[in-house]
């Protein structure tokens, strides 16, 4: 039986080798190439590709070159979103994954263009697999809807607007559903499409992804509080809890932890309703949250 950690260790090297050679082979303009490679090849968990691969694995299907390219498209969009999110006009972050952010290295204009290049390249990749044309079109539509104006971009808008007002819990959940959940759901939906799953299996997987994405965000907010407390002491811990528009801010730390647990249970229940697929690997993706809590 493979668990999330082992699966990640097995899959990341070949996926990253795929990304590296595809970018090296396809990109021409040297400055843009460096800036795009800098962010895509900067590590990260590769969570969205791993989710897509795990859906294939649950259906006992091979992770072939088509799957690599489709998962690659997801990772390109994710990388673009992080580059743009870090820009001075957005979160104004200097560090990402322990390294200077893209705009700190290449300048703001090149970072914007690197993001533009990655977003566009993702759709190029989706239309250059060996899959039938109708599947390619469906993949393009799933990714465009998840990443676009009714998905991740809308989430970013709500996030920016939320900086000046207090959100209610339902609004906070909606914001995160758009900002991070949609792309996580797209990863699972694209996997389901590649695996030719039936509508009932697809619906169960999408429900799993919905709760998984939410759990991911609740945990990110909890870790912000607990890691700040660990590094800076209790006073900052209190400040971090009181941050508005976070799960600990709205529910308190214990309340956010209870919400995380309940959300993980809902994700698990969705998997239990899956018929005809091996749910063990996807289920183990939930243990990631326990592992992070105990770090
Ligand atoms: C700029 C249109 C636009 C969108 C940006 C996804 C996003 C929207 C911003 C990310 C900001 C952020 C820190 C969100 C919290 C969720 C989170 C921890 C995202 C980072 O995704 P991971 O953890 O990143 O999968 P790695 O580094 O593992 O790839």
UniProtKB/TrEMBL annotation:
Record-level GO cellular component terms: cytoplasm
SUPFAM superfamilies xref list: Terpenoid synthases
Reactions this protein catalyses: isopentenyl diphosphate + (2E)-geranyl diphosphate = (2E,6E)-farnesyl diphosphate + diphosphate
A Gene Ontology BP annotation from the UniProt entry: terpenoid biosynthetic process
Signal peptide extent: none
UniProt EC number: 2.5.1.10
InterPro entries: Isoprenoid_synthase_dom_sf, Polyprenyl_synt, Polyprenyl_synt_CS, Prenyl_diphosphate_synthase
Matches recorded under Pfam families: polyprenyl_synt (PF00348)
Keyword field: Isoprene biosynthesis, Magnesium, Metal-binding, Transferase
PROSITE patterns: POLYPRENYL_SYNTHASE_1, POLYPRENYL_SYNTHASE_2
Cofactor(s), names only, from the UniProt record: Mg(2+)
Molecular function terms from GO: (2E,6E)-farnesyl diphosphate synthase activity; metal ion binding
Stored NCBIfam families: FPPsyn
Family label: Belongs to the FPP/GGPP synthase family.
Protein name as annotated: Farnesyl diphosphate synthase
Source organism phylogeny: Bacteria, Bacillati, Bacillota, Bacilli, Lactobacillales
Gene that this polypeptide is encoded by: ispA
